C-alpha cells in the first residue's frame, strides 16, 4: 500500500517509477543501464561521445558513435529483458543517424535532451516513427518548452509525446537554465513541476491518453520521490545517485571524486557548448577559468552548438578522460547533491533504500494528517 507505484509510458510499464539519467561521456553504458533495468527501473545509455571510446576512433570517427551505440544496446539487451533507454542530445551533429540506429535496434525508449525535438530527423519518416516500438520522450526545463513541443507535434503530425522529463536546476551536467536562474527559487523543480503537469492536461484529454511527467534534478532520497509524485510527477529520473554504484561504467576515480567532494566543490561552469554546466571543480577547471587553456584542433565536430574557434578546450575529450580516470586533463559533471554521496552501493541496494525511504516518508505524511 505504501510502495512505489509502477511507471507507464505508452506501452511500456516498469515496476518502479525510477529512470536512471543518461550520463555521457561513457558514464552510463550497458553495464549500468542493464543493472537498473534488472532492478525494476529504466536504465539509460548515454549516446554523447560514445564513439570516442572506440578503438581507433580518432582515425575512423565517421560512424563511430553509431557503431559504439549499436554495440552497447545489444550488450545491454543480452543482460536484461527489461526496458533499455538511450539518451541522445538534439545538439549532437549525428542526431539524425542515431535516431535511425535506435529504431533499427528496437530500443524501448529514447530521452532527447539539449534542444527541442520539433522537426522529424531526415533519416526517418513519420510512418516509421509511428510504426516503431521506440517511445521518444523530450527533456525540457519549463512548461513553456513542453507547450511548444505539444503544439508543434499536434499541428504538424497529429501526435503528442508519450511523456516529458522536466529537469530542474539542481541536475548534474548541462543546464537548460540561464546561470542567474539556477539559484532563483522561482525556478526550483517543485515550482516548475505543477505548471508542466497542468500544461499536458488539454492534450491528454484531446488524445485520450496519459502524458506522464518525469521529474529530474537533485532527487536524492525516497522522500524526494514522494514529494515529486505528490506534485503530479509519475516518476523520477536520477543521475548522481547512480554514479555512486558498483555498476556505473566510470573509472573508480570518477566515483571517488563523488565520494570525496564537498558542497563548495560543486560549481557552475561556462561550457564550451554555450550552456552552463554543473561539475566538481578541480585544477583543470580552475586553469580554464583563469584563461590558461588554448583553442584546439577538433576532428569530431560532435555538437552543432560548439564554437570550435572560441572553445578553450574540448568538453567531450575532457569528459571522456575523466570517465577513464584522468582528472589532470578532465573533470566530472555532477548534480548539486553529489556532496551527500557517502558510499558506493549496488544498484539493487540503492533501489531498496529508495523504496524503504519512500515507505517511511509516506507513513510519516499519513501520521501528520
Ligand atoms: C556525470 C553526468 C553526465 C550527464 N550526461 C548527460 C548527457 O550526456 N545527456 C543528458 O541529456 N543529460 C546528462 N546528464 C543529466 C542526467 O541525465 C540527469 O538528468 C541528471 O543527472 C539528474 O540530476 P541528478 O544528477 O541531480 O539526479 C548528466 C548528468 C551527470 C551527473
Your description of this structure?
By secondary structure, the chain is an alpha/beta fold. The chain folds into two domains: 7-251 and 343-368, Alpha-Beta Barrel (TIM Barrel); 253-323, no CATH class. It contains 13 helices and 13 strands. It has helices at residues 30-38, 64-79, 95-104, 126-131, 143-157, 189-199, 201-207, 222-230, 240-243, 252-260, 283-289, 315-323, 347-368, and strands at residues 7-9, 12-14, 18-20, 43-46, 84-89, 109-113, 135-140, 164-167, 173-174, 213-216, 235-238, 266-270, 276-280. Strands 3-11-10-8-7-6-5-4 form an eight-stranded parallel β-sheet. A three-stranded antiparallel β-sheet has the order 9-13-12, with no helix packed on it. A two-stranded antiparallel ribbon has the order 1-2. Helix 1 runs parallel beside helix 2 (64-79), helix 2 packs parallel to helix 3 (95-104) and helix 8 (222-230) crosses helix 13 (347-368). It is globular. The mean pLDDT is 92. Bound molecules: flavin mononucleotide.
Structure described in brief:
By secondary structure, this protein is α/β, with parallel strands linked by helices. It has 13 helices and 13 strands. It has an eight-stranded parallel sheet with strand order 3-11-10-8-7-6-5-4.
Bound molecules: flavin mononucleotide
Q: Helical segment tally?
A: 13
Taking all Cα atoms into account, the compactness measure Rg is 19 Å
Number of distinct beta strands:
13
Major sheet strand order = 3-11-10-8-7-6-5-4
Largest sheet, if any?
A: 8 strands, parallel
Uncertain residue ranges: none
Find the CATH superfamily of the largest domain. Answer: Aldolase class I
Shape call: globular
Amino acid at each position: 500500500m505504501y510502495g512505489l507505484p509502477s511507471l507507464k509510458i505508452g506501452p511500456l510499464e516498469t515496476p518502479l517509477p525510477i529512470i536512471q539519467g543518461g550520463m555521457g561521456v561513457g558514464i552510463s553504458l550497458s553495464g549500468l543501464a542493464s543493472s537498473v533495468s534488472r532492478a525494476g527501473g529504466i536504465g539509460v545509455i548515454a549516446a554523447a561521445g560514445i564513439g570516442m571510446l572506440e578503438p581507433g576512433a580518432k582515425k575512423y570517427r565517421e560512424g563511430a558513435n553509431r557503431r559504439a551505440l549499436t554495440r552497447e544496446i545489444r550488450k545491454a539487451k543480452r543482460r536484461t529483458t527489461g526496458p533499455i533507454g538511450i539518451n541522445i542530445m538534439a545538439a549532437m551533429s549525428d542526431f539524425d543517424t542515431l535516431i535511425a540506429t535506435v529504431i533499427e535496434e528496437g530500443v524501448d525508449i529514447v530521452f532527447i535532451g539539449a534542444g527541442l525535438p520539433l522537426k522529424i530527423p531526415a533519416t526517418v519518416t513519420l510512418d516509421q516513427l509511428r510504426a516503431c516500438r521506440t517511445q521518444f520522450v523530450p527533456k525540457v526545463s519549463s512548461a513553456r518548452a513542453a507547450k511548444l513541443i505539444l503544439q508543434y507535434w499536434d499541428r504538424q503530425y497529429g501526435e503528442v509525446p508519450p511523456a516529458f522529463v522536466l529537469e530542474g536546476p539542481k541536475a548534474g551536467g548541462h543546464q537548460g537554465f540561464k546561470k542567474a536562474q539556477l539559484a532563483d527559487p522561482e525556478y526550483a523543480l517543485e515550482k516548475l513541476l505543477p505548471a508542466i503537469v497542468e500544461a499536458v492536461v488539454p492534450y491528454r484529454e484531446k488524445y485520450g491518453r496519459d502524458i506522464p511527467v518525469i521529474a529530474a534534478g537533485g532527487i536524492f532520497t525516497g522522500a524526494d520521490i514522494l514529494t515529486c509524485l505528490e506534485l503530479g510527477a509519475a516518476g523520477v529520473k536520477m543521475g548522481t545517485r547512480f554514479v555512486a554504484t558498483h555498476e556505473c561504467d566510470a573509472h573508480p576515480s570518477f566515483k571517488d571524486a563523488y565520494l570525496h567532494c564537498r558542497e563548495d566543490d560543486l560549481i557552475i561552469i561556462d561550457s564550451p557548448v554555450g550552456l552552463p554546466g554543473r561539475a566538481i571543480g578541480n585544477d583543470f577547471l580552475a586553469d580554464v577559468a583563469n584563461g590558461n587553456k588554448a583553442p584546439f584542433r577538433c576532428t569530431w565536430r560532435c555538437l552543432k552548438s560548439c564554437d570550435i574557434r572560441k572553445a578553450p578546450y574540448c568538453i567531450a575529450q575532457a569528459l571522456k578522460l575523466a570517465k577513464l580516470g584522468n582528472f589532470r586533463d578532465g573533470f566530472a559533471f555532477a548534480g548539486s547533491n553529489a556532496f551527500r554521496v557517502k558510499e558506493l552501493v549496488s544498484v539493487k541496494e540503492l533501489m531498496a533504500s529508495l523504496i524503504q525511504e519512500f515507505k517511511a516518508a509516506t507513513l510519516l505524511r499519513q501520521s501528520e494528517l
